[in-house]
Write a structure and sequence with these properties.
Elements lengths: L1 H7 L2 H20 L7 E6 L4 H14 L4 E4 L3 E4 L2 E4 L9 H13 L4 E5 L2 H5 L8 E6 L7 H4 L2 H9 L7 E5 L5 H6 L4 E5 L21 H16 L4 H9 L9 E3 L6 E5 L4 H11 L7 E5 L9 H12 L2 E4 L9 H13 L9 E3 L3 H11 L5 E5 L6 E4 L2 E4 L2 H11 L1
Parallel strand pairs: 1-5, 1-6, 2-5, 6-7, 7-8, 10-14, 11-12, 11-14, 12-13
Antiparallel strand pairs: 2-3, 3-4, 9-10, 15-16
Helix pairs in contact: 2-4, 3-9, 3-10, 9-10, 11-12, 12-13, 14-15
Amino acid sequence: MVREVKGFIPQKIKNYAWHLPKAHIANLKYGFASKNMVVIGVTGTDGKTTTTNMIYQILKNAGKKVSMISTINAVLGDEVLDTGFHITSPNPLDLQKYIKKAKVLGSEYLVLEVTSSGLDQFRVLGVKFSVGVITNITHDHLDYHKTWENYFKAKAKLIKNVQTAVINRDEEHFNRLSKLTKGKVLSFGLHKNSNFNPLKFALKLKIPGDYNLLNGLAAAAVSVSLNIPSKIIKDTLNNFEALPGRMEEIKNDLGIKIIVDFAHTPNALEQALKTLKPKTKEKLISVFGCASERDILKRPIMGGISARLADITVLTDEDPRFEDRDKILDEIANGAFSHGAKLNENLFKEPDRQKAIKMAINLAKKGDIVAIFGKGHEKSMNYKGVEIPWSDQEAVKTALKNG
């Protein structure tokens, strides 16, 4: 009943009647904890967790006293906290508590991953960002924001009052974002006119994909703005290891490559498949689903992307919550059908994620790549509002063990 009632209350009223007062209380309770710290905020549809971790590692290697809060991990001083549940930006009370602890432990710098809903709901109110990064703004979270324009405006809030705004030069709305900040603009991208591009700031990353190169260039732009020497920046980025659930390879003896990746948006899925396609000796098998109570418009889009770029697609659960799991898969499949996919030939539907992963591995031959998307680092799956323990990595190991 409470869930249904909440659905009738406009989000704007929730924000001003509930989230805003809570943010004020949090700041008063913890004394505006980020005061006198250099705070770097990172937002974007994709890449923000990796970019956050890259910036943190650079600052740490430069000898700075730095803490970090991201969606998969938080490092406050020397203490590592696991945040790999269904977490976005922490609520204001938790966030201010974390920042206060970081300051007490001596941190002078804080790298903070920020989501669009966190910006919209005043969760970062009172945090004075010195540097703001927008990795990209593509298709996601329209369930919450309703329109892409609202989503765009929420993301743009991060850079409004920063000293330095780091923005993706490759995106069509670069000029618009540049005009929305009062700070200095540093651009990154593959575009020749970017302040930081592969020619002007050469990197040799271990982790694959142009999207990770962009993440690295964004991190480099931030670090240069903070007067970190280029050698430290490049050495750190070139030795940066993949994060859990980000293009993470699960080793096996079958002669196939099994990858677990968090890609859960159209852009992320497309970039991941484009990265894996050239590395595939035989067939590329894609396993994914779409979460319930999220952006339903992306479902057929993602189905179409997988049908176009993967040789075989296996659709499965990804947090069905209260929605009919078969309905979700049907909506994804409709996009695949529009790109020529044929059911039970190169498109399969198996709601049970464990069975779907096993199916994909059994379909694979030597030289194939099986890529499992959507859960990545997460440690649970939501069914009917209940978080059930889940790990794609463990599911792969179970499938390999059982044959």
